[in-house]
Request: fold
Amino acid sequence: MLLREVEYARPSTVEEAIGLLAEHDGARALAGGQTLLNVMKARAASPDVLVDLADLEELRSIGFGADGNLEIGAMVTYAQLTASSEIEVARPILGEVAATIGDVQVRNRGTIGGNVCVSDPTNHLPPLLVALDARFTIRGAESERTVDAGDFFRGVYMTAVGEGELLTKVSVPPGTADTGDGFAAVTIGRHGTCIVDAAASFSADSPRIAIGCVGPTPVRATAIEERLSGGDFSEQSVRSAAEGLGATLDPPSDVHGSADYRRALAETLAVRAVLDAASRRKG
Amino acid sequence: MSATKPSRSLPISVAVNGEQIEQEVPTRRLLVHFLRDDLGLTGTHVGCDTGNCGACTVHLNGEPIKSCMLLAVQVDGATIATIEGLAPDGELTPLQRAFNEHHALQCGYCTPGMLMSASALLERNPHPSEDDVRVALQGNICRCTGYVNIVEAVVAVGASGGSA
Reply:
């Protein structure tokens, strides 16, 4: 496919990248390109300038910040998430879920930053990062700010990253003895397009549960969270806590599933994710 | 190379199957078209052109990727291996022989991509299980075979010594 003409730049520092994004109307950051190049082929997006982030080494690392949080650079690929010993120690669910995105070739190129900045409702990482209480660091020409997952995802293909800004890293609290993270999804084929997914994360006192693919952005299942605050994570308790979740949702109907089917799946998958998370608590 | 000024055409330097190529390319050119149209390496196929089918799979710095999902300018400074690089002197590799022996192709259109994904797997994991092979080939679609013979061929290479 012949793409529309597009200018391309490959800056060597984050400052240069932000400068280019701010300077040119119609500039887009190019991360792994596994979504952006396709939408450019379809003419669904036609950026005038692509700012390739490939040489920004500081966006490619996984490590721990001074506050102990797991810090994942925006250009870290799914393959890196899956192979990382830091992820394995701190929040293994991130590697496990990354291993189910796309296929081997896509996982070698696609990045965590690209995944969340696309904010496609069928992506797995948005609900997972909501459940994990992730923070997103966004840098602009003048300043840097950090937003939580609830603020980051604004709508279909929309995030808190504004014009002339760049998502630089995603931070996740490190796991503790009380932590347990779970994930469940129904997809088309083993690793295909998502119909509904659910993520759950337990820390000492508060479970966080997020459902994906039932609205423009991940939906927190706060009613289940409250019902489970008593600490009874038996199957019976979790099942009864999840009852009625579907009725609170307004999911889309499409060729892959009706709204009612998605409501039913949301309850089932919330239960699976919570039980998975509860079973993985070390404490 | 860092290109800090946006441009519609850039010189790139890339090693393709061991040969260093220096060439100016339009920035909108996809890697697969650079390989096929500029370098004449037509063994890399265009199937779906949407990143689903894997017929255009090549190795970028040793890892399988879909060459319709990259711009040619993105591989500046990198090393690319295509299907033509598997058997440069014409003698088939054990993997290619296994495809022949197990009747792992019918029309053959997907085969270059299958071989590139399978050879990358065998580099990493010389003795893959059937499940390993199925996961590794998930990004490669075949409309003829039903996959059974392809998976058998790759498993057989691992079982009989493991060299791609």
